[in-house]
Amino acid sequence: MASSLPLLVWVVIVSTTIPSLLSPFLTLPAAEAQAFKCSRRGATCDAIVDYISPNATTLSAVKSLFNIKNLRSILGANSLPLTTPASKTLPANQTLKIPFTCSCANGTGRSSNRRPSYTVAPGDGLYHIAAEVFGNLVTFGEIQTANNIPNSNLIVPGQKLWIPLPCSCDDVEGQKVVHYGHVVAAGSSVEAIAGQYNVSQDALLKLNGLSSPKDLIAGAILDVPLPTCKSMINNGSLDYPLLVPNGSVVFTAGNCVSCKCDAQAAAAVNNWNLECQPTQLKSSIWSKCPSTSCQFGGSVNGDSSCASGSDTTSGTCTYAGYTNQTILTATLNSTCPQKDGGSALRPQYNWKWRLILTLLCWTVPISSSYMF
């Protein structure tokens, strides 16, 4: 009896340290799902999650793994130059931010449209897929539940599996944010993470159900609510509300516009305004990117006008969204003669028949509404 004890202990040690090797022979209990909370049923939004590859890889391989359509989405989320090639090598254990679309249902948030989708390879087990392919962003139990797999051992090569990445679309403390699944590094702290991402410690604790900063665990996926730059996106725009966190670049309006949030640059002028500019990319929705009634991305002098009879205007033309027909713009800090009221911001847009409507000046100083 005594001689069998060391063997029993040895088996337990092996099964807990290298379960991926035993997965074809061992039925692992499904782990409890740990998705981010999301109370906005049916809501969709942009989200980000950290990915740490255990092995050296390339941007192209990561793009393929997470089913990301355009490489520039990854480049923008990580503040990498748009000239960065897809073949760029990433060393093992380097953190890369992965942008994706989140969908809320049943009180939790998951990556939408059953993406990313992973094709099972020969020899794969659910633990291996969760821990070693997707860097513990999900548990094998979450994959099993999301794909309605009765037996975790019964997956076959060629089978498509949805990898349900954690996310949320909820407001935090009354503010719209981008939820970021941050992988907690060894030696990190709630205080350090809060300071790095400009969020409060209380918000982090509450959002993640932590009663104390001491409850933070290395390797855990922490829901970090990233503040975003202010924008003048019209609430009727197809990309409303266009939330862009610090250090990120997004492409919108059918790839005709890029918008950047740079807190360091914004601090110099004491604001967190979104910086948008036209791109030279091929549009995904138009044969050609439509012209705008003022040139956004810089200072404007005389490029826009108030109602007929006005003198000159000066200010900053800014991106205000887009419709199926055109790109919307607005002018900040402009001056208009006081005719039945003045305006500090007016919408500018092309009509569906490409007519540029005359801008009206109102008494409300900051508004970007437009009429149909």
Overview of this structure, please?
The chain is an alpha+beta fold. The chain folds into 3 domains: about 45-165, LysM domain (Membrane-bound Lytic Murein Transglycosylase D, Chain A); about 180-225, Membrane-bound Lytic Murein Transglycosylase D, Chain A; about 230-370, no CATH class. The protein has 9 helices and 17 strands. It has helices spanning about 5-15, 20, 60-65, 70-75, 125-135, 140-145, 190-195, 200-205, 265-270, and strands at about 45-50, 55-60, 90, 95-105, 110, 115-120, 160, 165, 180-185, 220-225, 250, 255-260, 275-280, 300, 315-320, 325-330, 345-350. A hairpin with a 4-residue loop joins strand 15 (about 315-320) and strand 16. The longest helix is centred in the first third of the chain and has 14 residues, at about 5-15. The protein starts with a helix and ends in a 24-residue tail after the last strand.
List the helices and strands and how they pair.
Blueprint: H1 4-17, H2 19-22, E1 44-52, E2 57-58, H3 59-65, H4 71-77, E3 89-90, E4 95-105, E5 108-111, E6 117-119, H5 126-133, H6 140-146, E7 160-162, E8 166-167, E9 178-183, H7 190-197, H8 201-207, E10 221-226, E11 248-252, E12 257-261, H9 263-268, E13 275-278, E14 298-301, E15 314-322, E16 327-332, E17 346-348
Parallel strand pairs: 1-9
Antiparallel strand pairs: 1-4, 2-3, 4-5, 5-8, 6-7, 9-10, 11-12, 12-13, 14-15, 15-16, 16-17
Helix pairs in contact: 5-6
